[in-house]
Amino acid sequence: MKYPRLTWAVLTSLILAAAGLAWWMNSQRDRLPDGIHRGNGRVEVERIEIAAKYPGRVIELPVREGDWVQAGDVIARQDPTDLLAQRVAVEAARERATQAMQRAGAETEVRRVQARIAQLELDHATRLKQDALVSGAEVERRTAQRDGERAGIQVATAAIGEATAARGEAEAQIQRINVALDDLVLRAPVAGRIEYRVVEPGSVIPSGGRVATLLNTSEVHMTVFLPTDVAGQLKLGDEARIVLDAAPQFVIPAVVSFVASEAQFTPKYVETASEREKLVFRVKLKVASELAGRYAPHVKAGLTGYGHVRDDSRRPWPPSLSVKLPQQGPASAPAR
What we know:
Elements: H1 2-30, E1 36-51, E2 56-60, E3 68-69, E4 74-78, H2 81-130, H3 136-183, E5 185-187, E6 192-197, E7 204-205, E8 210-226, H4 228-231, E9 239-244, E10 247-259, E11 264-265, H5 273-276, E12 279-287, H6 289-294, E13 304-310
Antiparallel strand pairs: 1-8, 1-13, 2-4, 2-7, 3-6, 4-5, 6-8, 8-12, 9-10, 9-13, 10-12, 11-12
Helix pairs in contact: 2-3
């Protein structure tokens, strides 16, 4: 009966030893070298709200959530019927102004010819009066006729100016309408992924109404919260490392791009209740745009992980935090 008891004692000892070894290995694995500090956070991707400048009805929305778009791709189109009708009316006004310019120009030339004729007749009458062949009244009549023709030139010239101004105003309105028509086509300002499609075709949206949310996958960062003694030693541009919970085998290089100027309490979703009582500084760790762009199809907002920093930029990174990226080469953006 002693042998079974001895066997159970040995098994219990082995189990306890294995558990102790696992605990020790786990604690050693999580232990960071001196001078290396970490904080947990989430991957954040710059969001761009694609919104309408003018109110109107959405007639086309060719993108869906998850679609990859390039800069300049069409996100949505609004109904241009009203603006097209306005442009037709303004184009007609421009044509009327053009014709008025032509009429005023022709009238000016006629008045100039008539003014020259009136001047010749006045000169002739003046000579005849010197010979007493015509009366002074005739000379005055010829003078008035010449002055009338000269005044007609001024009136016709003013009409040219008015018609020219009207044409310029019409052209400015046409240009404004064309710009507005271009604005009815909502395009992606940068390459990225559609996160949300807010409306559907047929929806009527106000000025500033959103149609979709675009993730700019070349602008990626993680926000961590670090204590004063660590944040105070960081400089903008210092190297950092990001390790994601979803892919702990990879180490992503980053840089410190922002350190808050004021301390705050740790957000409630970070660590434990005791940790939330501490004052910390918000620090952003930004992934290089070129690197984020290369791996854009793999970028996902909201992934949790750890951000690592050094309190001395001269201190080497431990082997476990050496940069390690997926072996897969730069992936091309998937086609929609």
